[in-house]
Amino acid sequence: MAYERILLGMGNPLLDISAVVDDEFLKRYDIKLNDAILAEEKHLPMYEELANNPNVEYIAGGATQNSIKVAQWMLQHPGATSYIGCVGKDKFGEEMKKNSKSAGVNVQYYEVDSPPTGTCAVCVVGGERSLIANLSAANCYKSDHLKKPENWALVEKAKYFYIAGFFLTVSPDSVQIVAEHAAANKKYFSMNLSAPFICEFFKDALEKVLPYMDFIFGNETEARTFSKVQGWETENVEEIALKIAQWPKASETRKRIAVITQGPDPVIVAEDGKVKKFPVILLPKEKLVDTNGAGDAFVGGFLSQLVQEKPIEDCVKAGIYASNVIIQRSGCTFPEKPDFK
């Protein structure tokens, strides 16, 4: 099996509690549309309210886990992917395990007695989504779990690593350990800016690991926030992508590639001082179900081709294809087989 355990993801496993809500609901809980934030005290009653919504759906999520599941789906090679994170010993944790295993992902959860498995409120209004993550157990991940022989074996086996920036809020030392392993062994390490708050409030952790990134993903809002935090005084996404790509690297094995998505606008790829743009598949408004997981799916599609050593053009096309499939469905779910050519 050339692809066995080739891709390893680490992140915050969260059970998505997804429901269509209205503007009044967003106002009541002080939520901005298209945002991704961590839950505060004022948000906690919302989870029960969503759970009581007659149209509520539970979907195994968390940014990295979504991307790994999509990559696995696109690859169609059983056991090509692995995923590490922390869940509670409860029914949500069991649900997540079942869901990920049926998707063909080799999950190695660190299981804790308390707190409970993390959840993410997915509030959908007019197809657009806002995410409010209550990390709970996901916040308890420790690098000791990563160092256990059976888990470190997955690190040694993998040639490609992907970690969403959200994990920097939980276990930056785990991220650093994997990043340094990748650089020392000429493997591919990639991350995601994930949310504006990561660029703002976890700036130091992000900057510490940035030199190890071979690929960095993000969307236009995250890129502009990154630029603002760095004092670059530009809102031009192409310029920002070039600057991120040119950030100094820990290993000279290869140059960094920055990939920035912009919703319905072209995907920007900055590599070696040049920018390429790739138009996305435009979807009529009536076909849009919800944008939850669109960015994660893009990364998953991209990685599915990257591990097969396909050219960047093919990686981007696969990313665009995967995100187009996902936004026509509720949450980060997909049909049985992809029909990507």
Description of the molecule:
The chain has 341 residues and is of the alpha/beta class. The chain has a single domain, classed as Ribokinase (UDP-N-acetylmuramoyl-L-alanine:D-glutamate ligase, 3-Layer(aba) Sandwich), CATH 3.40.1190.20. It is 37% helix and 24% strand. Helix 3 packs across helix 12. The longest helix has 15 residues. The radius of gyration is 18 Å and the shape is globular. The model has no long low-confidence stretch (mean pLDDT 94). Its EC number is 2.7.1.20.
What's the layout of helices and strands?
Blueprint: E1 7-10, E2 14-20, H1 23-28, E3 36-38, H2 44-51, E4 57-61, H3 63-75, E5 81-88, H4 91-102, E6 106-112, E7 119-125, E8 128-134, H5 143-147, H6 149-157, E9 160-164, H7 172-184, E10 188-192, H8 196-201, H9 203-209, E11 215-219, H10 220-230, H11 237-245, E12 257-262, E13 265-271, E14 274-278, H12 294-306, H13 312-326
Parallel strand pairs: 1-5, 1-9, 2-7, 3-8, 5-6, 9-10, 10-11, 11-12
Antiparallel strand pairs: 2-4, 7-8, 12-13, 13-14
Helix pairs in contact: 3-12, 12-13
